[in-house]
Design goal:
This protein is 44% helix and 11% strand. It has helices spanning 6-14, 17-27, 39-49, 73-86, 97-104, 112-117, 145-148, 156-159, 162-175, and strands spanning 35-37, 61-65, 92-96, 127-130, 136-139. A five-stranded mixed beta sheet has the order 3-2-1-4-5.
Length: 186
């Protein structure tokens, strides 16, 4: 199968019952400016492009949100706990991007999408959520060309710093995506 548009990406996710269950569970928390992002989206696209019948497992399901009013890490853990109660077999990871600049030692993000734009890889800088009618919405701050062309390059934010480029290169080695998805180009 070929994927070339955002509409095609949202359609394959909308048709995936497992993904929709995770999106509905997350939506039920009513988090401000929330997205499920990174490998959740990227792996689905690469699995479809590779013609895989089985889902490639991801180490965690990254849920991000943006709430500058309550930046207590304990709140994130409570949201994780609520998601685990809804879907206990899912490895949830919930992070408020309004506080992650402290953990990452960088200037504050202005929104969840701003945080996504500063992920290490363009192909991973993706997020999905449900709108009020339960339709999948996609954010791709750097576009979808790289993920649908199965290319892995650093985001502009990571490209501008030698230290961040070292993190990007280490992630490539550690993730070893080419062992799973043979057609990706690094």
């Amino acid at each position: 199968m070929k994927i070339s548009t955002e509409k095609e990406i949202t359609a394959i996710i909308q048709q995936d019952k497992w993904m929709m269950n995770l999106l509905k569970a997350t939506s039920s928390l009513n988090l401000p400016d929330w997205w499920i992002c990174a490998g959740f989206v990227r792996a689905k696209i690469w699995d479809v492009l590779h013609g895989f019948d089985e889902r490639t497992p991801t180490p965690d399901i990254d849920v991000i949100y943006y709430d500058p009013i309550n930046i207590d890490e304990k709140t994130e853990k409570n949201f994780e706990k609520a998601l685990k109660e809804l879907l206990p077999t899912i490895p949830w990871s919930v992070k408020n991007q309004a506080r992650m600049h402290v953990a990452n030692n960088i200037p504050p993000y202005s929104s969840a999408v701003d945080a996504i734009s500063k992920f290490p890889e363009i192909a991973t800088a993706l997020g999905v959520k449900l709108d009020d009618e339960n339709n999948v919405r996609l954010t791709a701050p750097h576009g979808i060309d790289e993920v649908v062309n199965m290319e892995v390059n650093p985001t502009p934010y990571f490209r501008e710093s030698k230290g961040r480029m070292l993190i990007f290169e280490k992630r490539l080695r550690d993730k070893n995506w080419q062992a799973i998805w043979k057609r990706i180009k690094v």
